[in-house]
Design brief:
Blueprint (H helix, E strand, L loop, with lengths): L5 H41 L34 E5 L16 E2 L16 E3 L1 E3 L4 E7 L5 E7 L1 H36 L1 H14 L15 H57 L5 H33 L6 E4 H15 L4 E6 L19 E4 L1 H17 L6 E10 L12 E3 L9 E9 L6 H4 L24 H11 L3 E6 L5 E8 L11
Parallel strand pairs: 8-10
Antiparallel strand pairs: 1-6, 2-4, 3-5, 5-6, 7-9, 10-12, 11-13, 12-14, 13-14
Helix pairs in contact: 1-2, 4-5, 5-9, 6-7, 7-9
């Protein structure tokens, strides 16, 4: 079965590879050694020639019958054997040289398959070692076979083979032991990561991996692990923050709904328990019930709109003329707030107020979006400017195009607040600004105006009915749904400027100005 532990698999694989490498190198050395020794024997055979006195010759004056005369045994080196096939083609029973073994040669020369001068290996006719033989043709039809035993070659090969096997076994054992220690040492960072992960799952969520060397695999794994932990922690923090915002939102919604519900319930009980109330008191009760019911309806509609905007993209996109929307908004607020100084003006170069603005022409500024939602944003901004500033304060609506930046808008800077992330700097954007010269807002108040159900200190001047505190939150959500941004520039005593920035996706109007 395949081992399950990575450490065991690594040790086993390294041991097998090391053993195979050792055995392969030993086999290659064995082959080279055997080939070299056999070549030496072949060299000796091909360069060996029996001395003239070693050749058989018949007695003078007689036919070659009977036993022939051979030299002494010391006429040849001790390890050579020389065999003769006589003129009759038969192998002579005697040979030059002496020893225990001999090669297996045929009895007649016609069965001899050796080629002259080419060494060949033949099995042993007596003994255990093979022989290396070479054949030559002598005088008077004599065939001579010279042989050398391969016992030295086979002995050296066998010793080398056993030495190689011993080295392979030692190498396998050594690699297994040392490899196990080396693998255990190399996997220590993984063991530390495992312990850290177990501690994190046990509740220590602030821990992180310490092995983060980018030059090693485990270090890069540690970096990736810490990055993953950071993203998980950020997701958990966002989840906790979202749950807290949801709880606060539900609490605020319940609180906002409780007041009109209590009023409706109280006046309804009054009408039921006192059916003989005067007509004036009865009409007043009915009016208060209707007014509180209308307030609840607006509040529920605003909550539904916030939920819809927060979970769905803009369903309807078309070319929107922001200048026309701003003009319609100014006309509507002048009717709703007579006597207020509300003006429509072009946006100066670089954004913000400028003395040259009055001399510029109003140009069409177009973008893609939902006309009704963007008109609602402008209406909310104008209503807030008229409600939360003194009657003599001037309100100005500016429309134009800019490139995002600290001065023109779209990015963060001191004194600027927003509920959405900043836009990339330097991109063209369509802008609608609603500015006033009222008292402005303090820094802590400016950061809360986009929160749901927030009401500033002047939320209901002159005894007017307070709003739901959802207008700016809805406007900011609509801007974010259009991939834009709603932001506020203000400081105490210097007025406030709400700025709506939308991507300029339709090429209309003048070129964007840096």
């Amino acid at each position: 079965m395949r081992p399950r532990a990575m450490r065991t698999r690594l040790v086993l694989i390294s041991t097998v590879l090391a053993t195979v490498a050792v055995l392969a190198s030993q086999a290659a050395g064995l082959t080279v050694m055997r080939t070299w020794l056999t070549g030496q024997i072949d060299h000796r055979l091909t360069h060996f020639g029996p001395p003239p006195r070693a050749l058989p010759s018949p007695a003078p004056g007689s036919a070659p019958e009977g036993p022939e005369r051979f030299p002494r045994e010391d006429a040849l080196p001790s390890d050579y054997r020389v065999y003769f096939y006589g003129p009759d083609g038969r192998l002579r029973p005697d040979s030059l040289g002496d020893g225990d073994g001999r090669p297996l040669l045929p009895a007649v020369v016609s069965s001899l398959t050796l080629q002259d001068g080419r060494p060949t290996t033949v099995p042993a006719g007596r003994g255990t070692s093979d022989w290396r033989v070479v054949a030559r043709t002598g005088p008077d039809g004599l065939r001579v076979v010279v042989a050398l035993p391969l016992d030295t070659v086979e002995g050296a090969t066998a010793k080398l083979l056993w030495v190689g096997l011993a080295i392979g076994v030692v190498a396998a054992v050594g690699v297994g032991l040392l490899g196990s220690a080396a693998v255990r040492l190399g996997l220590r960072p993984l063991d530390r990561m495992e312990r850290t992960a177990l501690r994190i799952t046990g509740g220590e969520a602030d821990l992180s991996v310490t092995d983060t060397d980018p030059r090693t695999e485990t270090g890069r794994l540690g970096i990736a692990f810490n990055t993953m932990l950071g993203q998980v922690r950020a997701a958990l923090h966002r989840k906790d923050a979202s749950e807290q915002r949801l709880r606060r939102f539900m609490a605020d919604a319940g609180h906002e709904l409780r007041t009109p519900l209590t009023s409706i319930q109280g006046f309804a009980e009054l009408l039921v328990e006192h059916p003989r109330l005067p007509a004036t008191r009865r009409r007043e009760a009915h009016e208060l019930i209707a007014r509180n019911a209308e307030r609840m309806s607006r509040l529920v509609d605003d909550l539904f709109l916030l939920t819809k905007l927060g979970h769905a993209p803009v369903a309807h996109r078309e070319t929107v003329d922001l200048l026309s929307l701003a003009a319609d908004g100014v006309g509507a607020v002048v009717v709703a707030h007579p006597g207020r100084d509300v003006r429509l003006a072009p946006l100066a170069a670089g954004g913000g107020p400028s003395g040259a603005r009055s001399r510029e022409a109003l140009d069409v500024v177009e973008t893609l979006g939902d006309t009704h939602q963007l008109a609602q944003v402008i209406a909310n901004l104008l209503a807030n400017a008229c409600v939360h500033t003194p009657p003599g304060a001037r309100v100005e609506v500016r429309v134009g195009t800019v490139r995002t930046g600290p001065a023109s808008g779209g990015t963060d800077r001191p004194g600027r607040s927003s509920a959405t992330a900043p836009l990339p700097p330097g991109i063209p954007a369509c802008v609608v600004e609603v500015a006033d010269d009222g008292p402005g807002l303090a820094a802590d108040t400016a950061h809360q105006v986009f929160e749901r159900f927030y009401r500033g200190p002047t939320a209901a001047p002159d005894g007017a009915e307070p709003g739901s505190g959802l207008g700016l939150s809805i406007a900011s959500t609509i801007a974010e749904a259009h991939h834009g941004r709603l932001e506020l520039d203000t400081r105490p005593g210097a007025g406030a400027t709400f700025r709506l920035l939308l991507p300029r996706s339709v090429g209309a109007g003048p070129a964007s100005r840096p």
